[in-house]
What we know:
- By secondary structure, the protein is an alpha/beta fold.
- The protein has a single domain (about 1-85, about 135-230), classed as Rossmann fold, CATH 3.40.50.
- The protein has helices spanning about 40-50, 70-75, 90-100, 110-120, 120-125, 135-150, 165-180, 195-200, 225-230, and strands at about 1-10, 15-25, 30-35, 50-60, 60-65, 75-80, 155-160, 185-190, 200-205, 210-215.
- The strands form two sheets. A six-stranded mixed sheet has the order 6-7-8-3-9-10, with helices on both faces. A four-stranded antiparallel sheet has the order 2-1-4-5, with helices on one face.
- Helix 3 runs parallel beside helix 6 (about 135-150).
- The longest helix is centred in the last third of the chain and has 16 residues, at about 165-180.
- Adenosine-5'-triphosphate binds near residues 36, 37, 39, 40 and 42.
Amino acid sequence: xxxxxxxxxxxxxxxxxxxxxxxxxxxxxxxxxxxxxxxxxxxxxxxxxxxxxxxxxxxxxxxxxxxxxxxxxxxxxxxxxxxxxxxxxxxxxxxxxxxxxxxxxxxxxxxxxxxxxxxxxxxxxxxxxxxxxxxxxxxxxxxxxxxxxxxxxxxxxxxxxxxxxxxxxxxxxxxxxxxxxxxxxxxxxxxxxxxxxxxxxxxxxxxxxxxxxxxxxxxxxxxxxxxxxxxxxx
Length: 234
Ligand code: ATP
């Protein structure tokens, strides 16, 4: 579904990613692990089109690397960004409507929203509340549901467990597992190696802008060796 070759990402004079390759097959959950500053968010920004990059980014067979952000979204890229960035003053429902902004099939938006309220009942209960009044975990659920409102081909998740209590983190990983079982293609960026590996098919480890290790998730066991690598760098 997504194929990246020789991707370099720059922020002004700084090159954050130095030429990486990665692939996400249709229906797979692939995790990009790595310490702070490794270039994980930069990689996602290059895919969505918000960071400058060179190299190939192919989505469902088409090179999208030169397209502007909105065109990539229309072709099926959606992200739940780091820090969630929900619209705090808008209601839960309005946030979901915003997620569907680029869609042509307006008539199906209402039923999709009802579907997400069934999947995340707590969001349904709070549909008319300003999203800023939700807890961190609820805001993360909303950010994921909002991204999925565009009916993307691939869902990018940037550190969905960041800042959440362990129990809430477990719930968010359960949700990601459910989405995978529903056939949604996922590229997950995480620092929580153990939880991410458990639901992933394939893992890439990014260090200083380069892939230092990759392989099927089973190869990394329970992820504890990777956890040491990732946290040891801090
Ligand atoms: P984190 O978990 O902290 O978000 P990360 O792996 O996602 O880490 P990036 O945010 O991609 O890493 O950052 C990679 C490198 O690029 C870092 O050295 C960072 O300082 C730099 N960088 C990221 N964004 C910018 C920016 N907008 N301007 C300048 N440098 C940046």
